[in-house]
Specification:
By secondary structure, this protein is an alpha/beta fold.
Length: about 260
């Protein structure tokens, strides 16, 4: 824990920290002794999390209200934290869209691009100079196993997470000689409110990981980039899919999704 705090502390910034994997990252980092800057839209949630973590771990927690669908949100976050010695950036905020691409709401797709793509692009751009000046630190980007191949009936989300994976891999190579570790997390199904919002009943799904386990395993592997697939099941599934001729894999995924919707 001391080595982790020395390399990635004293402060970690986590976006999407009000629930799911983001909240689990915040809880795990607090247990490792890092002070936190927690970013999300729901201030009431952040206030409750901050009070709990500060009380249990004796750390300092700053909360920032930010809607990452706004183009200026990443710059505002960077400006508000310029005086903090942030050693770890966890760009975790994101959301999904499922179903026929032609039925996706255009405004929601724009928000998806801003939150899932624009925010990590701009946040990493803003914090890299600070991390380079320190000569140590880390960046964690939350992508998805759906970044590994274009996923039918998840076209917009899959495409957005492919950008995050490519960004993380590129930065891993760019920054490795600067003492900055970069790891892109590609989780499979994970307990979260996000699943319920898009119509999935986690209790009826197999191979669902706990958010706390995903966060802990990711933080333990920051130095082992460029990517980490947290689920053994989904790692094996996507290894099989990506080894197939691409047309066959895509057709199989489309057929499987349609069958799941019909059942």
């Amino acid at each position: 824990m001391t080595d982790f705090a020395d390399r990635y502390g004293p402060v970690a910034l986590v976006t999407g920290a009000s629930s799911g994997i983001g909240k689990a990252f915040a809880e795990d980092l607090a247990a490792r002794g890092l002070d936190l800057v927690l970013v999300a839209r729901r201030v009431d949630r952040l206030e409750a999390i901050a009070a709990d973590l500060a009380g249990r771990h004796g750390i300092d927690v700053t909360i920032l209200e930010a809607d990452l669908a706004r183009p200026d949100a990443p710059a505002a976050i960077a400006a508000q934290t310029v005086s903090r010695n942030i050693g770890l950036l966890v760009s975790n905020a994101g959301f999904s869209m499922k179903g026929d691409h032609a039925t996706n709401d255009p405004a929601e797709m724009t928000d998806l691009l801003m939150v899932n793509c624009h925010a990590p692009l701009q946040l990493t751009r803003s914090f890299i100079p600070q991390l380079r000046a320190r000569g140590k630190g880390g960046i964690v980007l939350t992508s998805s196993v759906e970044a590994l191949i274009g996923c039918p009936y998840s076209a917009a989300y899959s495409a957005s997470k492919a950008l995050v994976k490519a960004l993380g891999e590129a930065l891993w190579a760019e920054l490795r000689d600067d003492g900055i570790d970069v790891l892109t997390l590609c989780p499979g199904a994970t307990e979260s409110e996000a699943a319920a919002r898009i119509g999935y009943d986690i209790s009826k799904m197999a191979h669902v990981m706990k958010a706390a386990d995903v966060a802990a395993q990711t933080l333990d592997r920051i130095a082992d980039g460029p990517t980490f697939i947290s689920s053994d099941h989904y790692r094996a599934t996507f290894e099989t899919l990506t080894a197939m001729p691409r047309p066959d894999a895509l057709i199989a995924m489309a057929v499987g999704f349609r069958a799941s919707q019909a059942s």
